[in-house]
Amino acid sequence: MPGHKLGMGIPAEFLKEIEKLDLTEISGTDNLHNPTGAIKEAQELAASAFGARRSFFLVNGSTVGLHASIMAICRPGQRLIVGRDCHRAVINGMLLAGVTPVYILPEYSENFNLNTGITAAAVGKALETAPDAAGVLITRPNYYGVCSNIEEIADVVHAYGKPLAVDEAHGAHLAFSPRLPASALEAGADICVQSAHKTLPAFTQGAYLHIGSDRIDEERLWYFLDMLQTTSPSYVIMTYLDIAREIMQKNGETLLGRLLDSIEACCARMAASGIRVLGTDDVPGFGFDTTRITANMSGLGMTGYHAENLLREKYNIQVEMSDLYNIVCISTVADDAVRISRLFDSLLGLKKVCGYGVKPSEIVYRGLTLPDSVAEPSGIINALPDRIALENAAGRISREIISPYPPGMALVCPGEKFTAETVDYLVHIRQCGGIVHGIDENGNVVVV
Ligand SMILES: Cc1ncc(COP(=O)(O)O)c(C=O)c1O
């Protein structure tokens, strides 16, 4: 990220005199909070390109769209069924909205040591146990590119008369290629957010919020969106949201086709390398976004963290994220065949330094679990905080979201107890070079 890759995905004529785009609400520039002119037109063009009933530009990323969506779907005190592999923006949104989560665990691939997707059966079970929930929120694709089956999930959720929200932060490009899984809207989601800045040639913080059906109260959604977005929205961000839409609408299928061809050709070269690149066949029952390059490093005896460092130091390549086992690279229409090939050449080069780093066998992680929730998350916000060493946190209730970042999936949420296993695992991640949000530079966490 960002998906324009230092401007390579944006035609040069659109990159001149960017400072002259930095405007405010004056005659002729329209107003994000009351769009009647250029912004209204650009949002309508986005709605038609992405197949939405209505689309909104977001200037604070998918984060603000998730907050507004949660507030629109739920009343304070209600429950929301949420995939536990959600981003911290979802958890914070529920805290702000006074909403209590009912979490569903994603499936887990022992083979790649990563979370895969949420099944329709798991969603059905959650709805059976929490029929009062206001709706369901699923993250898809996940950071690794795995796509839960939204068609099946939407059928289950709609049978209960509830809305399905999809955090499609990583999937703004899906609508533009038949070679990729269907977008959330195509698959029946009622509302979704997309971080254009992640997978389209758009600027950081630029995102879309799309409404897909009348199960969403548009008036209520707009009420919260208007409340939450800045009154000084960046015209630079909004302009590139429009440009990204135009690029993808006109050329997206061709550009994505070329990108997918070059990735496929490179994947074929990895066969005997010891590095396994995640593909559709590795996640049976789920879809897979094949623009996402997720490579498992266990066969080389090194952690993803170590591979990330080597790629940066030796090959001048910055991956999107790493975990104990894998690295994840986001490729977009801004990446040409030469850049993709250079990435795979560099991965093959890592073989020369294999055996360096933490051996996968030393690692105990077996996927997300659900800690006991001991306090209403919203009650936690006002509790008196206490800062203690992570090593002493077992049995204490967290005030913060504790999440290795990226991908930002929570291991402990506000109101949940640290378990001894979670503490050991977090210590291990930090020893291996991972960064964990919610643990300060002195290794302390905040408990109540
Ligand atoms: C799954 C997911 N949802 C939401 C977000 C937040 O998106 P943004 O940074 O556009 O606010 C992220 C960011 O990494 C994410 O990975």
Can you tell me about this structure?
- This protein has 448 residues and is of the alpha+beta class.
- The protein folds into 3 domains: 12-248, Aspartate Aminotransferase, domain 2 (3-Layer(aba) Sandwich), CATH 3.40.640; 252-362, Alpha-Beta Complex (Aspartate Aminotransferase, domain 1); 377-447, Molybdopterin biosynthesis moea protein, domain 2 (Alpha-Beta Complex).
- It has helices at 38-50, 61-73, 88-97, 120-129, 150-159, 196-199, 218-228, 235-268, 304-315, 337-349, 377-380, 420-431, and strands spanning 54-58, 79-83, 100-104, 108-109, 114-115, 136-139, 146-147, 164-167, 191-194, 207-211, 276-277, 287-288, 292-296, 321-322, 326-330, 386-389, 403-404, 436-437, 444-447.
- The strands form 6 sheets. Strands 1-10-9-8-6-2-3 form a 7-stranded mixed β-sheet, sandwiched between helices.
- Strand 4 (108-109) and strand 5 form a beta hairpin.
- The mean pLDDT is 93.
- Pyridoxal-5'-phosphate binds at residues 61-63, 87, 89, 139, 143, 167, 169-170, 195, 207, 408.
